[in-house]
Design a protein that fits this description.
CATH architecture of the largest domain: 3-Layer(aba) Sandwich
Number of domains: 2
Shape: elongated
Radius of gyration: 17 Å
Helix content: 25-40%
CATH class of the largest domain: Alpha Beta
Order of helices and strands: EHEEEHEHHEEHHEH
Protein backbone atom coordinates (compact mmCIF):
# COMPACT_ATOMS: atom_id res chain seq x y z
CA UNK A 1 0.00 0.00 0.00
CA UNK A 2 1.44 3.40 -0.93
CA UNK A 3 2.11 6.00 1.72
CA UNK A 4 -0.45 8.49 0.36
CA UNK A 5 -3.33 6.09 1.09
CA UNK A 6 -2.48 6.11 4.80
CA UNK A 7 -2.09 9.82 5.47
CA UNK A 8 -4.27 12.91 5.11
CA UNK A 9 -3.09 16.47 5.62
CA UNK A 10 -5.84 18.85 6.73
CA UNK A 11 -5.44 22.56 7.40
CA UNK A 12 -7.28 25.77 8.18
CA UNK A 13 -5.48 28.94 7.15
CA UNK A 14 -6.61 32.54 7.39
CA UNK A 15 -3.62 34.27 5.81
CA UNK A 16 -1.73 31.51 4.00
CA UNK A 17 1.16 30.44 6.21
CA UNK A 18 -0.57 27.35 7.60
CA UNK A 19 -1.64 26.41 4.07
CA UNK A 20 1.96 26.70 2.87
CA UNK A 21 3.23 24.41 5.64
CA UNK A 22 0.41 21.93 4.90
CA UNK A 23 1.38 21.90 1.21
CA UNK A 24 5.03 21.27 2.06
CA UNK A 25 4.08 18.44 4.43
CA UNK A 26 1.68 16.85 1.94
CA UNK A 27 4.32 17.05 -0.79
CA UNK A 28 7.01 15.49 1.41
CA UNK A 29 4.72 12.64 2.43
CA UNK A 30 3.00 12.27 -0.97
CA UNK A 31 -0.29 12.65 0.88
CA UNK A 32 -3.60 14.18 -0.13
CA UNK A 33 -4.31 17.63 1.28
CA UNK A 34 -7.68 19.06 2.28
CA UNK A 35 -8.82 22.46 3.48
CA UNK A 36 -10.79 21.82 6.67
CA UNK A 37 -14.07 23.06 5.20
CA UNK A 38 -13.77 20.43 2.45
CA UNK A 39 -13.76 17.34 4.65
CA UNK A 40 -16.06 15.84 7.29
CA UNK A 41 -14.92 14.29 10.59
CA UNK A 42 -16.29 10.89 9.48
CA UNK A 43 -14.01 10.93 6.40
CA UNK A 44 -10.94 11.17 8.63
CA UNK A 45 -11.56 7.63 9.88
CA UNK A 46 -10.38 6.34 6.47
CA UNK A 47 -6.79 7.37 7.23
CA UNK A 48 -4.20 5.74 9.47
CA UNK A 49 -2.60 9.12 10.21
CA UNK A 50 -4.32 12.50 10.11
CA UNK A 51 -2.11 15.57 10.18
CA UNK A 52 -3.96 18.75 11.13
CA UNK A 53 -2.58 22.27 10.92
CA UNK A 54 -4.13 25.41 12.33
CA UNK A 55 -3.01 28.91 13.15
CA UNK A 56 -2.80 30.17 16.71
CA UNK A 57 -5.25 32.95 17.53
CA UNK A 58 -5.93 34.22 21.06
CA UNK A 59 -5.15 30.88 22.64
CA UNK A 60 -7.06 28.81 20.12
CA UNK A 61 -5.94 26.52 17.33
CA UNK A 62 -7.99 27.56 14.33
CA UNK A 63 -10.48 24.87 13.26
CA UNK A 64 -9.08 22.15 15.54
CA UNK A 65 -12.56 20.97 16.57
CA UNK A 66 -12.74 19.14 13.25
CA UNK A 67 -10.17 16.63 14.46
CA UNK A 68 -11.01 16.65 18.16
CA UNK A 69 -14.53 15.48 17.26
CA UNK A 70 -13.29 12.86 14.78
CA UNK A 71 -12.21 9.33 15.58
CA UNK A 72 -8.70 9.57 14.15
CA UNK A 73 -6.57 6.44 14.44
CA UNK A 74 -3.46 8.56 14.86
CA UNK A 75 -3.49 12.36 15.05
CA UNK A 76 -0.56 14.70 14.47
CA UNK A 77 -1.19 18.42 14.95
CA UNK A 78 0.92 21.35 13.89
CA UNK A 79 0.28 24.88 15.02
CA UNK A 80 1.49 27.99 13.25
CA UNK A 81 2.12 31.24 15.09
CA UNK A 82 4.51 34.15 15.34
CA UNK A 83 6.16 33.26 18.64
CA UNK A 84 9.63 31.76 18.81
CA UNK A 85 8.93 28.04 19.13
CA UNK A 86 12.21 27.42 20.94
CA UNK A 87 11.22 29.51 23.97
CA UNK A 88 7.42 29.59 23.95
CA UNK A 89 5.38 27.59 26.46
CA UNK A 90 2.38 26.18 24.61
CA UNK A 91 0.98 24.16 27.53
CA UNK A 92 -1.86 26.63 28.24
CA UNK A 93 -2.94 26.71 24.60
CA UNK A 94 -2.86 22.92 24.40
CA UNK A 95 -4.95 22.54 27.57
CA UNK A 96 -7.53 24.96 26.12
CA UNK A 97 -7.85 22.97 22.90
CA UNK A 98 -7.50 19.32 23.93
CA UNK A 99 -8.57 17.10 26.79
CA UNK A 100 -5.87 15.48 28.93
CA UNK A 101 -6.64 12.14 27.26
CA UNK A 102 -6.29 13.64 23.80
CA UNK A 103 -2.96 15.22 24.73
CA UNK A 104 -1.62 11.79 25.67
CA UNK A 105 -2.48 10.43 22.22
CA UNK A 106 -1.56 13.34 19.93
CA UNK A 107 1.86 14.33 18.65
CA UNK A 108 2.13 18.12 18.38
CA UNK A 109 4.59 20.30 16.47
CA UNK A 110 4.84 24.10 16.59
CA UNK A 111 5.97 26.06 13.53
CA UNK A 112 6.60 29.77 13.02
CA UNK A 113 4.48 31.59 10.50
CA UNK A 114 4.27 35.18 9.46
CA UNK A 115 2.03 38.16 9.08
CA UNK A 116 1.33 41.02 6.74
CA UNK A 117 -0.47 43.69 8.76
CA UNK A 118 -2.11 45.04 5.61
CA UNK A 119 -3.89 41.71 5.10
CA UNK A 120 -5.22 41.33 8.65
CA UNK A 121 -8.96 41.56 9.19
CA UNK A 122 -10.34 44.23 11.52
CA UNK A 123 -10.50 41.94 14.57
CA UNK A 124 -6.91 40.77 14.17
CA UNK A 125 -5.69 44.34 13.58
CA UNK A 126 -7.41 45.30 16.82
CA UNK A 127 -5.83 42.39 18.68
CA UNK A 128 -2.38 43.33 17.42
CA UNK A 129 -2.90 46.99 18.38
CA UNK A 130 -3.90 45.88 21.88
CA UNK A 131 -0.84 43.63 22.13
CA UNK A 132 1.42 46.49 21.02
CA UNK A 133 -0.04 48.84 23.66
CA UNK A 134 0.34 46.20 26.38
CA UNK A 135 3.92 45.53 25.30
CA UNK A 136 4.78 49.23 25.29
CA UNK A 137 3.60 49.45 28.92
CA UNK A 138 6.14 46.82 30.02
CA UNK A 139 9.44 48.08 31.37
CA UNK A 140 12.10 47.65 28.67
CA UNK A 141 14.12 45.31 30.90
CA UNK A 142 11.13 42.93 31.19
CA UNK A 143 10.39 42.68 27.48
CA UNK A 144 11.02 39.35 25.78
CA UNK A 145 12.58 38.87 22.36
CA UNK A 146 9.05 38.39 20.99
CA UNK A 147 8.01 41.70 22.60
CA UNK A 148 10.89 43.51 20.91
CA UNK A 149 10.09 41.84 17.59
CA UNK A 150 6.43 42.88 17.89
CA UNK A 151 7.36 46.51 18.46
CA UNK A 152 10.00 46.55 15.70
CA UNK A 153 7.77 44.95 13.07
CA UNK A 154 4.36 46.37 13.98
CA UNK A 155 2.52 47.44 10.84
CA UNK A 156 4.93 45.64 8.51
CA UNK A 157 5.33 42.25 6.88
CA UNK A 158 7.18 39.65 8.90
CA UNK A 159 7.76 36.02 7.95
CA UNK A 160 9.59 33.31 9.86
CA UNK A 161 8.51 30.40 7.68
CA UNK A 162 11.15 27.77 7.01
CA UNK A 163 10.49 24.62 5.01
CA UNK A 164 13.19 22.76 6.95
CA UNK A 165 11.15 23.03 10.17
CA UNK A 166 8.70 20.42 8.87
CA UNK A 167 11.45 17.77 8.90
CA UNK A 168 10.80 16.44 12.45
CA UNK A 169 7.07 16.13 11.69
CA UNK A 170 7.68 14.37 8.38
CA UNK A 171 10.18 11.97 9.93
CA UNK A 172 7.81 11.22 12.82
CA UNK A 173 4.95 10.38 10.43
CA UNK A 174 7.15 8.23 8.19
CA UNK A 175 8.00 6.08 11.21
CA UNK A 176 4.29 5.64 11.97
CA UNK A 177 3.18 4.33 8.56
Amino acid sequence: MSIQKNIAVIYKSKYGTTKQYAEWIAEALEAPIFESSGIKPSQLEEYDVVIYGGGLYAGGIDGVKLVTKADCKQLVVFTVGLADTAVTDYSGILKMNFTQEQLQNIKIFHLRGGMDYKKLNLIHKGMMAFMRKQTEKKPVAERTNDDHALLETYGKEIYFMDKETITPLVEYVRKKV
